[in-house]
Amino acid sequence: MKDRKTPPQDSRTCTVIIVSYYTGPVLLDCLQAALEQEGLDGVVLVDNGNDETMRKKVDKVTVSDRRLRVLRGHGNVGFARGCNMGVATAEADYILILNPDCVMRPGSMRRAIEVLTQHPAAAALTLKIENSDGSEQRGGRRNLISPWSCLVELFRLDKVMPNNPHAQRINLHETPPFDTVTAVQCISGAFMMMPRTVYTALGGMDEDYFLHFEDVDLCLRIQKSGYQILYVPDVTVMHMKGTSRTLPLFVEWHKSMSAITYFNKHFCSGRSCFLLAPISISILLRFLLLAVPLTVVWLWSCIMRACSRADSDHSGS
User: Fold this and answer.
1) Is the pTM for the entire model greater than 0.85?
2) What integer pLDDT is reported at residue 309 of this predicted model?
3) Closest CA to 116 of 279, 249, 227, 267
């Protein structure tokens, strides 16, 4: 297991990287909470696309707090490339990949920096990620995704072999909570802190992923490099999913393509590629089954928003 050099105790700082695409009002809460963190060097907002009203509000924040920098004008380049663009401008000891709909509690950054400094064998860390109701969010701590783990999920082999350590489910949020800092196989890109030098040495996020699975891919490469990944249960961050106005079908398509890319990159060699064919087919079938209901729900929500605006305009007149 590798150890890395840690910076002196009093010089530890972190740059927050936030990639945003039509996130909604929660983006301002995310920025404000990040700017209030102890140990902050700066915040880099990679604007992959936001409406004019939000851009103006963000620009006001940059005027009042010069630690916030905004990168925009590049279009929607995806999450992985957006993260890499942000990290390329950072100079702090640590970088924090933070989703734009995540709101940090006071002291979150300082605690995360302390843990990474105390564990030189660790190359990445996350906190306990909660839903808005305070429950632990799915995906915050998990096992690595592999063809075998997918079979465990599909056939619920964890129930057939409950005492087999190799027959565990991917997501661990329904398992007993950890009491102390614990090494895990995989964490979420919603909150992922890393030493900047390690992130750079690993090549950052793989830009072959447009959306989803880039965090899983990075965790796999971290483990292959001999480093640990840590989960810190005593500090929480709230992740408010569902705030983006992105078309759900767009998200599911890229999630499906990224899953296939991930399996082909890491589990396809020689004859094993033929074994991945059923997995790829099942991923595409899942997308097709979701396509119709997702499109119907999205169209219905658009109609309801249009009706709501029409009622407001009528009342105003």
Assistant:
1) yes
2) 66
3) 227
> Where in the chain does DSSP place strands (E)?
14-21, 40-49, 68-71, 94-98, 102-104, 122-130, 141-142, 182-183, 186-187, 191-195, 228-239
Please give the structure tokens belonging to residue 212: 């989803």
Beta bridge partners of 18: 45, 98
14, 91 contact by CB (below 8 A)? no
pLDDT at 177: 94
Helices (H), strands (E): how many in the chain? Answer: 10, 11
- Residue 105's SS3 state is coil
CA dist 46 and 24 (Å) reads 15
Q: Which domains does the chain have, with CATH numbers?
A: 9-239 (3.90.550.10), 248-316 (no CATH)
Count of residues making up the chain: 317
Contact 87, 197 (CB under 8 A): no
Q: pLDDT per residue over 111-147, tens digit each?
A: 999 999 999 999 999 999 999 999 999 999 999 999 8
